[in-house]
Amino acid sequence: MSLMNCWESIRDKTENKEIDFEIFYLLLSEFQKINSYQKKRNVEKIIKKYCLVNELLWFDLFVNNQIFKIEYRYECNDVSCSEKISEAKCDLCGEKVNEHDEFEIFVRLTKNIEEYLKEYNRNLLFSNINKKYLPTLKDIKKNLSDVVFFIGAGVSIPLGFPNWVNLLKNWRKDWLKNRIKKNSKSILIMVMFLK
Ligand SMILES: [Zn+2]
Description:
The chain is α+β, with helices and mostly antiparallel strands and about 200 residues long. It has helices spanning about 5-10, 20-35, 40-50, 55-65, 110-130, 135-145, 165-180, 185-190; strands at about 40, 70-75, 80-85, 105-110. The protein is flat.
């Protein structure tokens, strides 16, 4: 499967094949940048920004075709809970999940779609790289073990790299796990600001 296959199968399910690949790609990229669960109504607002057809149709198509995954969040006796099925029974009170107050639907991209997007973006990037610089890049990589590339904003997440906050969170996790010896002071200063 690829992003293109995924788009074709969705498009074929709409009456007039209204879903344009470019719009589909831009829309999914916007969700990929958000990179976390969002309230359903915010997701519908984003869809509305891009689509020509009814946003509810898109929403259902995306859920039914494993582009979006859903989490049902609710409160029970002041405890925050979540479930994957709205009809499931609450562990705390035995009522159905969707019968609680503060019940809300959250949505995010599935792992599969995130992978297809990363692959599509990687191919897109490499098809746009000026090939004459590749030997230089390879040479740098081979000879300098500590080199860090700074690439323009908007490139890292689509290619599957963490954003700044997640990068620091990962460092913090490593630091806590291994108590990294080298440069531990500087890493410690950065990680102190994170929960
Ligand atoms: Zn309950």
